[in-house]
UniProtKB/TrEMBL annotation:
The lineage of its organism: Bacteria, Bacillati, Bacillota, Bacilli, Lactobacillales. The active site is at 100 (tele-amp-histidine intermediate). GO terms for molecular function: catalytic activity. InterPro entries: HINT, Histidine_triad_CS, Histidine_triad_HIT, HIT-like, HIT-like_sf. This is Protein hit. It comes from Liquorilactobacillus satsumensis DSM 16230 = JCM 12392.
Length: 142
């Protein structure tokens, strides 16, 4: 993609602070730094989102995540945990349409990152959950 910011970062046209790179992925610090060490893992092949991955390419890209996550955690003894997030589509807060995985170190409950989910469990009976699961299972690919 000629106008993709992540493709430009991968090619070196836009500077980045790289923490890991191999023939398949590049991991660099997110300029927003949701928390210190916030890193993006980006496949070098332009792929828009999770829906474009095949199983083999997903295995290649996602197999790098634990290694990079462990390095981030080991880099600072104050890191207590990590959120690993992959947004897909504008409705899911994807702002750059080149697949990327956020590794966001967590230092405390009061750090600068928050995830808020509403508990909707009271709205779903076991039967309703089974219907949702059946719809999903019917669309699984072999």
């Amino acid at each position: 993609m000629h106008d993709c910011i992540f493709c430009k970062i991968i090619k070196g046209d836009i500077p980045s602070t790289t923490v890991y790179e191999d023939s398949e992925v590049k991991a660099f610090l997110d300029i927003s730094q949701g928390t210190p060490g916030h890193t993006l893992v980006v496949p070098k092949k332009h792929i828009a989102d999770i829906f474009e991955y095949d199983a083999q390419f997903a295995a290649v890209v996602f197999s790098r995540i634990p290694k990079i996550a462990r390095a981030i955690k080991a880099s600072d003894p104050a890191i207590k945990g990590m959120n690993i997030i992959n947004n897909n589509g504008a409705i899911a807060y994807q702002s750059v349409f080149h697949s990327h995985i956020h590794l966001i170190p967590r230092y405390s409950a009061d750090d600068d990152f928050k995830m808020i989910f509403k508990d909707n469990s009271a709205k779903y009976t076991a039967t309703a959950l089974q219907k949702i699961a059946a719809r999903i299972k019917a669309k699984l690919e072999d």
